[in-house]
Amino acid sequence: MRIEAYNQVASLYQANQVKKTQATDKTVASARDEVQISSVGKDYQVAKKAVNEAGDIREDRVAEVKAKMKSGEYSVNVEDFAKKLYDALKEV
After folding, report:
1. Torsion-angle region of residue 72: left (phi > 0), alpha (psi -120 to 50) or beta?
2. Cα separation of 34 and 66, whole Å?
3. Measured between alpha carbons, how far is 92 from 90 in angstroms, rounded to an integer?
4. What 3-state DSSP class applies to 24?
5. pLDDT, tens digit (0-9, with 9 covering 90-100), for 20-73
6. What pTM does this model have?
7. Are 10 and 2 in contact (CB under 8 A)?
């Protein structure tokens, strides 16, 4: 290891320590905390609220399937159902 490289790193480190100390002194003097939420955080809050307000059951889809079942148009492909059931049980 070269000593001059170490000296350069050490001097940078010491300079950063002085800046941090000065910054700490300034923040202590102001003694006021402030929180800022980014626009991404605000968008996330809006999306989370919308998801929480939405129901777990999609009533429109349920009504559509019920109507098809009553009219006799709803049919289940047994092979697809069996494959999906097997895949779901295989993961457990």
Report:
1. left
2. 54
3. 6
4. helix
5. 666 555 555 557 888 888 888 889 999 999 888 887 888 889 999 999 999 999
6. 0.33
7. no
